[in-house]
Specification:
Blueprint: H1 3-20, E1 26-30, H2 32-40, H3 45-53, E2 57-62, H4 63-71, E3 96-97, H5 110-118, E4 131-136, H6 141-145, H7 150-175, E5 182-186, E6 189-192, H8 197-237, H9 242-255, H10 259-268, H11 270-282, H12 288-305, H13 310-319
Parallel strand pairs: 1-2, 1-4, 2-3, 4-5
Antiparallel strand pairs: 5-6
The structure holds zinc ion.
């Protein structure tokens, strides 16, 4: 697969993941036409699917698809069981997806079966199980009927056209369910269809919604956060306002962001500073670290100068 295309597909699957909740391993419902095409173009089922979907896959075959595949198989005369067709991979590669559409669990039409799995609810079309559909146009019966006479060939073409029409209708019905990635085999290439316009609308809606919701969430969070902060930590965080909060705040201010403000403040109001010092001197219960530093300085100075505040120096020593 060319790099450009794989990048495109990866992007597309990423959109399905974001907007519709797809997750690896992707569950891929493969139909009988898809298996036939994969077989006739000699593609390996899982590697091709994984390259197309750019991720791990879990292919599934419904019981009704299996019934369709086995319907025209000749019986093995010895076992009296239908011969396993070459295009049907073993169950280890392609497990059965059990589906029950009626009480006696008789298989129903493959297309109806798959559509009912893609959108279980008739009211709201929604791909709840995050299935990916893998399908293909039916093999043209022309080639098979080539050797037959003209009449038969004509009938074959008609049948082929009916099958083709049905296959096209199937795909457009699948497109009408939002969020159904469609893989199909087109002229020996496995492709991933672009998102249907319906899916795109939903995706865009989701993205806008997310954007809006994101904004709202942020706004709410901000408000909530601020509210909480102001309630709890008015003293803590709002500290920068120097005048009103000074004393109770000191501890916080020391580690906090309010330093520049304080400097400015100190320049602006010396008197205030003086007060602060006085206050420091007054209260024994005032926060210690800062005072300690000051005392320390004084003490250092006094160490050199003389004895006068030596008492202070002593207390500092004791405090430390
Ligand atoms: Zn079924």
């Amino acid at each position: 697969m060319r790099a450009k295309r794989s990048k495109k597909y990866r992007k597309l699957m990423h959109q399905y993941e974001l907007a519709f909740g797809f997750r690896e391993p992707y569950q891929v419902l493969v139909d009988s036409n898809f298996l036939q095409a994969v077989h006739s173009f000699k593609m390996e089922l899982i590697p091709y699917l994984e390259r197309t979907l750019q991720g791990k896959v879990k292919p599934l075959l419904t019981k009704c698809s299996l019934a369709k595949i086995m319907a025209n198989q000749p019986l093995n005369p010895r076992t009296n069981n239908p011969v396993r067709p070459a295009q049907l991979p073993p169950p280890t590669v392609l497990p059965l997806r059990h589906c029950t559409h009626n009480e006696d669990e008789t298989p129903i039409d493959e297309v109806e079966c798959l559509l009912s799995l893609l959108s279980p609810s008739a009211d709201v079309k929604r791909n709840k199980e995050h299935y990916i559909l893998a399908t293909a146009d039916p093999a043209t019966p022309k080639a098979a009927a080539q050797d037959a006479n003209a009449k038969k060939r004509k009938r074959g073409v008609d049948e082929g056209e009916v099958a083709l029409r049905k296959s096209r209708m199937f795909r457009s019905a699948a497109r009408a369910i939002p969020g159904v990635p469609i893989v199909y085999v087109k002229r020996s290439v496995m492709v991933l269809e672009p998102m249907s316009s319906l899916s795109e609308e939903l995706r865009d809606g989701y993205e806008n919604g997310k954007f809006r919701a994101g904004l709202n969430d942020e706004a709410v969070n901000k408000k909530g956060g601020e509210g909480a902060k102001t309630k709890k930590g008015m003293k803590k965080v709002k500290g920068p306002n120097p005048l009103s909060v000074k004393k109770p705040k000191k501890r916080v201010n020391e580690s906090g962001s309010s330093r520049p403000a304080k400097k400015r403040d100190a320049e602006g109001s010396r008197a205030e500073d003086g007060d602060e010092r006085a206050g420091d001197g007054d209260g024994d219960s005032a926060p210690k670290p800062k005072r300690r530093r000051r005392h320390h300085n004084r003490g250092a100075r006094t160490d050199g100068d003389g004895e006068e505040p030596s008492g202070g120096g002593d207390t500092v020593a004791m405090e430390e």
